[in-house]
Amino acid sequence: MKYLWIVGALLLASQGGAQSVASNNSCAGDCTAITTTGDVVKIEEKAATTTGNVSAALTEDVTVSIPAIVAMHLHETSWNVNLANLDDRGNDCDCYRAGEHNILTGRDDLYDILGLMRATNSVWHGDGVDRADNRYSYAGDLKWDTQYGSGLAGKLLQVHRYPGIEWRGPNMTQVSWKGPIVCFNRKIVQKFTNASKGWTVNVSLQGRGNKPVTPGFPTFILGDRVAQSGNRDNAANPKKVEVLYDALTGAKPGLTFNHAFARGSASLTTTGGWLDDYILEALVFDGNETAGVKEAAVKFELVGQF
């Protein structure tokens, strides 16, 4: 609950002599007396010999008590991917080709997914669609930078099975493609702070509870694109993209940015109200993952400096 205290002091300032008037709150007839405290009345009278204007000014002292607030709203609290269900019956995990097998080296070549997500013209944002179940759970529009990596975006064709393999015909006698796959997920995180000295966002991947990340967890990439001024071009919507977990090395570098990056000015220390972060997550299955149920948690943290 917010509390607003307003202390009123009404003052009339003038150019000539001031006349003080006191009230005894007396009342004649059937009227009801109104008790007031702390009021001062000054009446300015214009002398007959004085020319020009006579002014009166009123001032009111307003005191507002505002609590220091840091708040976040995560509109989707879980992402579950079952690679056993990526078949022709449907693909609910939004998975695509992430590379291809190299017949010369005998190994899989991985596309530069991190670079594509970081590319200037790769953008994702909310679609403004009001959903009855969760109106902010899905950032609806995703457009890849078609110029990046010699048209890399055009190679991200949807896949239907793990490991990544596709057939030329229905009889599964000829292979048309095989290689790594990547699954994407989009959501929105909202943040609010009235910090007077700025704020910082930190995003990291960690284990659930007090446990470490399950060994064999796949590479996890996250992109955070900050909403700004109602525009949808990249300049008005700054973004950060980082590998939060490397399946090969186990490294967890994390992602961070501050108010100056997000709002374009160090002097804009608050979030300016609830400020949306459009999140794009990518799980890369390049063969460094191992079988089993793998668990991790993405931690979104907002730190306000007061």
Question: Could you explain how this protein is built, in words?
Answer:
The chain has 306 residues and is mainly beta. It folds into two domains: 1-65, no CATH class; 70-304, no CATH class. The chain is built from two helices and 19 strands. The protein has helices spanning 113-118, 259-263; strands at residues 3-9, 18-20, 42-44, 59-65, 70-74, 95-97, 99-102, 107-110, 123-125, 141-143, 164-167, 175-179, 181-193, 199-206, 219-226, 239-245, 255-258, 275-285, 297-304. Strands 5, 6, 13, 15, 16 and 18 form a six-stranded antiparallel beta sheet that branches. A hairpin with a 4-residue loop joins strand 7 and strand 8. The longest helix is centred in the middle third of the chain and has 6 residues, at 113-118.
Using the CA coordinates, give the radius of gyration.
Answer: 31 Å
For the record, the count of structural domains works out to 2
Helical segment tally? 2
Share in β-strands: 35-45%
Question: Helix/strand-derived class?
Answer: mainly beta
Helix content: under 10%
Which consecutive residue ranges, at least 5 long each, have pLDDT under 50? 1-26, 230-234
> Helix and strand succession?
EEEEEEEEHEEEEEEEEEHEE
Mean pLDDT: 82
Strand runs, count: 19
Distance between the termini: 20 Å
Largest sheet: 6 strands, antiparallel
Oligomer: single chain
Shape: elongated
